[in-house]
Amino acid sequence: MIRCAGAVFAAMIQLAAGACRAEGHIYCPDGASRLPDRSFVAAAREDLSMGPRLRDAAEQLSRGNRSVLLAALDSQGATTMMTVACSANDRFWSLLANLGLMRDTTADLADALRDTGAVAYELTDAGRQVLPDLLTPLFSP
How confident is the model at residue 49 (pLDDT cuts 50, 70, 90)? Predict the structure, then answer.
């Protein structure tokens, strides 16, 4: 299982190399960064397991949080998922976006929605392929 996951992560990193977000960090009121630091991608290239960072973020998700991502994976076509900036979903999804598995589409939201603190994400094609296998161990009790 670990070797298989390593191969999956290796493929993800190759996809993510050109898809890493170029924007700066957005810091939440509790002092946590909602976007991983740039060294995350460099570290991911060296340590393909990426387990602790993703597992920690996944453990912060409630069943309801998890259900949003699982429902998007079950849907056909593009699905926009919205949450509040700095929420557990936002932190987890921003990690996945830095890996090229999701795309931050907040800029596409209407100004009125962005002004409320809403953020939006969509799954990428790579995310639709990789996430079902990735989420199984992350979302297991």
Answer: low
